């Protein structure tokens, strides 16, 4: 009771303090603005899009930007701006879902490897290393035709190839934390290993993991675009920045606008999330915090 | 014949595996750079089978047509004409017994001696051998035997008089003559490594996925050629080939008719741009053997829901024309003014009658720019009728591979076959025996077979043309065929050369000339 009564003002203060420090960093401010714009444009794509992104209008194909079509049209006469906005939905969905699942599975497996039964450690680490040995693109090209192209395949590939990364980090952190005096004391008091993990170790290691995850979001966005470009990712009539880029490459001699329309949001998202992630790390990592 | 014929028979799979291994080892002998005497041509893929019994892909056809002799062949130029090739003379006065005399002195490479009538006998009769499992056996149904009457002379005996055997088989790719001695030494067949060819060029190096080089045949004593070597570069997408041409990496390619306006307005430096009309039928097949599509109402609904003129406008910028059948305009048997028209309301009604609302079907197609564009429009068209179309773009090899599992799972398939000036050639494949092989639509009709039989023994062009029209109408009425177009294509070549091409743009390598 007393905890819930006394802590919230302190948490709000810490959050506000952190946010202000984030915004005082130019890189952080740019990251916040870009990411906010991207998220808003994706969330409100249905409202902002002037056309149905799948509406075909062949007589209007490959048009340059105009008042009717701000980013021009593609080879089927579809409005590129609308497709780019809906592509943002796909990109963010893939990135957030993949990140959440990769972190989730990575944390669980990493904690089991680091603090679970000893006999489980080696097989899990071996599995991590085996999966990490495969380059993502090669794995995608091998797996894609088996499971079929699509959002689920993309997410599956990204999660499978990212879990070992998080799992390895979590395992190392858990092993380090498990040697702390307070953990040994809790174990001596008879607290179960699962409870110690959930209540005491996880809260201590999750912060840096989440910051790492935020820095991986642009990687996932670019990966989704890359896999769609290669034909393993999103399938028509859905839109994706990678598909727009693919069309742009195919029709580069007719128009360069498709390449620009596919590239700009991709670059913006990558920069925005990278700036934000790095600023978050600088702000909340005590070792890197300026003045500490 | 078709744009690919890989994986037709189980035996063929084993051959394919061996082909890749052998080809990699035997031909991988190093790079051959471009020079003033080198002609670089973009082709859609690597070759698969260079045995005339198993050929399938466009590149197989290019190579078989250019490396093996036939009695006669279609000549390069703007009109479909036939010229003698290995034959000095051919007597077609009796369409059931075709007499021929070979030119003396045509030598096989590899020291396999001179081309003789025995080679002709072997090359044609082998297709009838069930052990060979010839993929084009259908084309040889009328062949009884080849009688060798001399070193260079013989008579081809047919079971019935036929004009189509000459136009569709003997002068076409499957009519290629191979060296009996070389084939027998190789075990009766070969894949991508024929040991004996004739003509001005012979196979040089082959790097799968990279290039295939044809070099001068030192034993060739016929008309000289202008280029010392020909390099075939596999570039699957025509737009990518166009970029390679613009970058100076190739000298001749075909490109999409949809790019014609851009190419004319802004041609790559030193380029000549031409528009050619092929006779290759592009069509959507609808497999009636699939449970989802077994009801003719469903198939008719799909036919009526499609907006083919829009597909053609998008893929050819209006330079194509909606097809009315397998026979191109101007050829015997072309159907005038009978193209399918869209009727969305009727399509919805048919689906409702069939109880197939909410149908989801899959469309397989070769994943290049043109096909992908067409597939996306078809997807949007069918969505308006309430049908979900899942797009399944595949590379050429995968698309044309057909084993029992895939044959049973075929649904919709957008494909182009290599055309022949005689429509019989294409239409002979839609018979029951070909289900699971080339008849992906699963079409089977006794009436159709009767017409097919009547067509092949009908010598009079007008009468045969009328039969072809009926056959095409039957195919369309089955709901299993949507004729899209006979694809136009853009020819892109350097202004320093004059390409030797058939009327539909297929290259005849020895006929390429340097511009003096």
Describe, in plain words, how this protein is organized in 3D.
The complex is a heterodimer of chains A (292) and B (516). Chain A is an all-alpha fold and 292 residues long. Chain A has one domain: MetI-like fold (Orthogonal Bundle), CATH 1.10.3720. Helix content of chain A is 75%, strand content 0%. In chain A, helix 4 packs parallel to helix 11, helix 7 (151-178) runs antiparallel to helix 9 (193-229) and helix 9 (193-229) packs antiparallel against helix 11. Chain B has 516 residues and is α+β, with helices and mostly antiparallel strands. Chain B has 2 domains: 11-221, Alpha-Beta Complex (Dipeptide-binding Protein, domain 1); 277-489, Dipeptide-binding Protein, Domain 3 (Dipeptide-binding Protein, domain 3, Roll). Chain B is built from 16 helices and 18 strands. Chain B has a 6-stranded mixed beta sheet with strand order 11-16-12-15-13-14, sandwiched between helices. A 4-stranded mixed beta sheet of chain B has the order 1-10-9-8. In chain B, helix 8 (296-305) runs antiparallel to helix 10 (344-354) and helix 15 (446-456) packs antiparallel against helix 16. The radius of gyration of chain B is 23 Å and the shape is globular. The two termini of chain B are 35 Å apart. The model of chain B is unreliable at 1-35 (pLDDT under 50). The A-B interface holds A 54, 56, 58-59, 61, 75-76, 145, 148, 231, 235-237, 250-254 and B 237, 239-240, 242-243, 246, 258-259, 262-263, 266, 310, 313-314, 367, 369, 372-373, 375-377, 379-380, 383, 390-393, 398.
List the SSEs and their pairings:
The complex is a heterodimer of chains A (292) and B (516).
Chain A (H helix, E strand, L loop, with lengths): L1 H23 L1 H18 L1 H4 L31 H36 L2 H15 L3 H12 L3 H28 L2 H8 L4 H37 L11 H10 L6 H28 L8
Helix pairs in contact in A: 2-4, 2-11, 4-5, 4-7, 4-9, 4-11, 5-7, 6-7, 7-9, 9-10, 9-11, 10-11
Chain B lengths: L9 H18 L10 E6 L14 H10 L4 E3 L7 E3 L2 E5 L5 E6 L14 H9 L17 E6 L4 E6 L5 H7 L9 H6 L15 E7 L3 E6 L12 E6 L3 H9 L5 E5 L3 H6 L5 E16 L9 H10 L2 H9 L27 H11 L5 E7 L2 H16 L3 E7 L1 H5 L3 H6 L2 E5 L7 H4 L18 H11 L4 H17 L3 E14 L2 E2 L14 E2 L2
Parallel strand pairs in B: 1-10, 13-14, 13-15
Antiparallel strand pairs in B: 2-3, 4-5, 5-7, 6-7, 8-9, 9-10, 11-16, 12-15, 12-16, 17-18
């Amino acid at each position: 009771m007393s905890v819930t009564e006394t802590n919230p003002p302190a948490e709000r203060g810490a959050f506000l303090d952190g946010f202000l420090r984030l915004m005082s960093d130019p890189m952080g401010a740019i990251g916040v603005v870009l990411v906010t714009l991207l998220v808003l444009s994706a969330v409100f794509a249905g409202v902002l899009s002037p056309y149905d992104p799948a509406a075909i209008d062949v007589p209007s194909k490959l048009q340059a930007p105009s008042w009717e079509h701000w980013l021009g049209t593609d080879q089927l006469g579809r409005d590129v701006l609308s497709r780019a906005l809906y592509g943002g939905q796909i990109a963010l969905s893939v990135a957030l879902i993949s990140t959440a699942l990769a972190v989730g599975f990575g944390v669980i497996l990493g904690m089991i490897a680091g603090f679970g039964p000893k006999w489980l450690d080696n097989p899990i680490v071996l599995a991590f290393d085996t999966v990490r040995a495969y380059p993502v693109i090669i794995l995608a090209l091998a797996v894609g035709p088996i499971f079929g192209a699509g959002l689920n395949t993309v997410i599956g590939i990204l999660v499978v190839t990212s879990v070992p990364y998080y799992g390895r980090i979590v395992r190392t952190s858990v092993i380090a934390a498990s040697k702390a005096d307070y953990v040994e004391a809790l174990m001596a008091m008879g607290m179960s290993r699962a409870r110690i993990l959930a209540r005491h170790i996880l809260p201590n290691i999750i912060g840096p993991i989440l910051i790492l995850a935020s820095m991986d979001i642009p990687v996932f966005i670019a990966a989704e675009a890359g896999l769609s470009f290669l034909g393993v990712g999103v399938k028509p009539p859905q839109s994706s920045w990678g598909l727009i880029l693919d069309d742009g490459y195919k029709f580069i001699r007719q128009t360069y606008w498709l390449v620009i329309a596919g590239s700009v949001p991709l670059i913006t998202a990558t920069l925005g999330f990278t700036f934000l992630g790095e600023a978050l790390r600088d702000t909340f990592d005590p070792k890197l915090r300026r003045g500490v | 014949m078709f744009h690919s014929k890989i994986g037709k028979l189980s035996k063929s799979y084993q051959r394919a595996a061996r082909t890749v291994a052998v080809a990699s080892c035997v031909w991988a002998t190093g790079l051959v750079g471009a020079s003033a005497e080198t002609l670089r041509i973009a082709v859609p893929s690597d070759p698969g089978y260079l045995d005339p019994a198993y050929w399938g892909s466009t590149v197989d056809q290019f190579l078989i047509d250019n490396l093996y002799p036939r009695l006669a062949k279609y000549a390069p130029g703007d009109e479909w004409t036939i010229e003698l090739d290995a034959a000095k003379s051919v007597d077609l006065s009796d369409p059931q017994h075709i007499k021929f005399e070979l030119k003396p002195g045509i030598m096989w490479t590899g020291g396999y001696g001179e081309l003789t009538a025995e080679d002709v006998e072997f090359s044609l009769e082998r297709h009838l051998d069930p052990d060979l499992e010839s993929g084009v056996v259908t084309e040889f149904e009328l062949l009884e035997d080849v009688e060798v009457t001399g070193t260079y002379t013989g008579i081809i005996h047919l079971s019935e008089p036929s004009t189509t055997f000459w136009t569709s088989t003997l002068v076409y790719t499957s009519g290629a003559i191979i060296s009996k001695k070389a084939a027998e030494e190789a075990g009766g067949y070969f894949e991508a490594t024929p040991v004996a060819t004739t003509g001005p060029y012979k196979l040089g190096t082959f790097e799968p996925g990279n290039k295939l080089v044809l070099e001068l045949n030192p034993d060739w004593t016929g008309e000289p050629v202008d280029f010392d070597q020909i390099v075939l570069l596999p570039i699957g997408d025509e737009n990518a080939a166009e970029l390679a041409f613009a970058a100076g990496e190739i000298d001749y390619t075909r490109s999409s008719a949809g790019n014609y306006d851009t190419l004319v307005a802004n041609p790559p430096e030193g380029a000549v741009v031409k528009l050619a009309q092929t006779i290759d039928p592009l069509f959507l097949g609808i497999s009636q053997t699939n449970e989802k599509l077994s009801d003719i109402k469903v198939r008719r609904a799909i036919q009526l829901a499609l907006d083919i003129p829009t597909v053609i406008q998008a893929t050819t910028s209006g330079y194509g024309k909606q097809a009315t059948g397998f026979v191109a305009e101007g050829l015997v048997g072309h159907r005038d003014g009978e193209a399918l028209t869209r009727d969305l309301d009727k399509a919805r009604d048919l689906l409702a009658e069939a109880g197939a609302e909410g149908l989801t079907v899959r469309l397989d197609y070769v994943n290049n720019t043109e096909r992908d564009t067409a597939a996306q429009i078809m997807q949007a068209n069918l969505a308006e009728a309430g049908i979900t179309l899942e797009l399944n773009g595949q590379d050429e090899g995968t698309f044309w591979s057909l084993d029992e599992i895939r044959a049973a799972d075929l649904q919709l398939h957008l494909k182009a076959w290599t055309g022949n000036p005689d429509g019989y050639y294409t239409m002979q494949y839609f018979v029951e025996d070909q289900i699971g092989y080339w008849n992906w639509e699963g079409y089977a009709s006794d009436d159709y077979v009767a017409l097919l039989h009547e067509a092949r023994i009908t010598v009079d062009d007008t009468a045969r043309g009328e039969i072809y029209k009926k056959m095409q109408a039957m195919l369309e009425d089955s709901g299993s065929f949507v004729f899209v177009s006979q694809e136009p294509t853009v020819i892109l070549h350097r202004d320093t050369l004059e390409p030797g091409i058939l009327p539909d743009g297929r290259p005849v390598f020895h006929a390429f000339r340097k511009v003096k």
